[in-house]
């Protein structure tokens, strides 16, 4: 469903357009993210709304009071757009999507989770990221591409954030991510705290291991620790100590995006996302007192 280059589950605008709307996005941040002492930015991983085309999913993001997204390859664009988000988008669809994003004051900060299989696909991925003004690409790259993507990242100013899926997975433990980061200054981490907990790892300790290298994260909660198949639940209702996670990110002066990724209640999850945004606002507000 996500195309041959994308990781199919995350149990898993042009620069000018972005610049034109930068003031609106900044104002939205101030309104919807209570206090941003640590520079936190809250977004939605669009996998959360994977049952809907991008045009409809953006309405949900907007309704939740969030102004940033992490796109995923393969999501149908919808509206008057014919294709799907990814490297095969037509020039016409790209322009229509940029206009739609600008009209809502929403920006794409990242995309993923991807794992291109060739150099050519990686180059196209970075080209797409540049066109929409992305900050980082969330990925689980094959080791053979570490040098390439680090070089592409350096040339483009776009980072690669390595994501952790439940075991068995090449990046299931922070040590494997640190191995990829070694000697590659443009490679860092996308901290999926839910998957760490599924792997029997303490998310706070994982964040400490990756200090200085966390570019983004997936904000979620699960019902059972140390179970790769543990179901998602609404953030703050599960086993993860979310306040401790946010406190650790503040201590590290994290200034990236936390993407809400809610893999449950697929067809009616907007209330869950809105609740998570409100809970996040409250907890960040406490950090700033």
Secondary structure topology:
Layout: H1 15-20, H2 22-32, E1 41-45, H3 54-63, E2 68-71, H4 91-104, E3 107-114, H5 119-131, E4 136-139, H6 146-156, E5 159-163, H7 174-181, E6 187-192, H8 193-198, H9 203-209, E7 214-219, E8 221-222, E9 232-233, H10 242-251, E10 257-260, H11 270-287
Parallel strand pairs: 1-2, 1-10, 2-3, 3-4, 4-5, 5-6, 6-7, 7-10
Antiparallel strand pairs: 8-9
Short description:
This protein is of the alpha/beta class and 289 residues long. Helices cover 39% and strands 16% of the residues. It has one domain (15-287): TIM Barrel (Alpha-Beta Barrel).
Largest sheet: 8 strands, parallel, barrel
Task: Give the CA-CA distance, first to last residue.
Answer: 44 Å
Pairing-aware structural class of the strands and helices? alpha/beta
Task: Give the C-level CATH assignment.
Answer: Alpha Beta
Strand order of the largest sheet: 1-2-3-4-5-6-7-10
Uncertain spans, ≥5 residues at pLDDT below 50?
1-37
In CATH, the topology is named TIM Barrel
Overall mean pLDDT:
90
Order of helices and strands: HHEHEHEHEHEHEHHEEEHEH
Shape: globular
Portion of residues within helices? 25-40%
Count the beta strands.
Answer: 10
Count of spatially separate domains: 1
User: Please, what is the CATH homologous superfamily?
Assistant: Divalent-metal-dependent TIM barrel enzymes
């Amino acid at each position: 469903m996500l195309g041959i280059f994308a990781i199919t589950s995350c149990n898993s605008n042009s620069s000018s357009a972005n610049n034109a709307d930068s003031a609106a996005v900044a104002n939205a941040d101030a309104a919807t993210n209570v206090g941003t002492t640590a520079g936190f930015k809250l977004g939605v991983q669009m996998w959360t709304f994977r049952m809907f085309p991008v045009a409809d999913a953006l309405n949900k993001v907007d309704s939740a009071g969030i102004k940033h997204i992490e796109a995923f390859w393969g999501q149908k664009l919808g509206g008057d757009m014919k294709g799907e988000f990814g490297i095969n988008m037509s020039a016409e669809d790209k322009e229509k999507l940029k206009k739609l994003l600008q009209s809502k004051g929403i920006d794409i900060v990242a995309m993923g989770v991807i794992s291109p299989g060739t150099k050519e696909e990686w180059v196209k991925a970075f080209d797409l990221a540049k066109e929409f003004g992305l900050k980082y690409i969330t990925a689980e790259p094959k080791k053979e591409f570490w040098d390439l993507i680090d070089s592409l990242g350096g040339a483009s100013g776009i980072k690669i954030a390595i994501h952790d899926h439940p075991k068995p997975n090449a990046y299931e433990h922070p040590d494997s991510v640190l191995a990829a980061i070694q000697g590659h200054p443009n490679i860092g981490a996308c901290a999926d705290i839910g998957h760490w907990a599924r792997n029997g790892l303490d998310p706070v300790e994982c964040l400490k291991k990756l200090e200085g290298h966390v570019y983004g994260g997936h904000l979620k909660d699960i019902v059972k620790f140390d179970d790769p198949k543990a179901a998602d639940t609404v953030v703050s209702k599960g086993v993860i100590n979310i306040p401790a996670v946010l406190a650790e990110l503040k201590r590290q002066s994290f200034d990236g995006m936390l993407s809400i990724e809610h893999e449950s209640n697929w067809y009616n999850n907007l209330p869950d996302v809105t609740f998570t945004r409100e809970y996040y606002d409250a907890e960040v507000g406490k950090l700033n007192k």
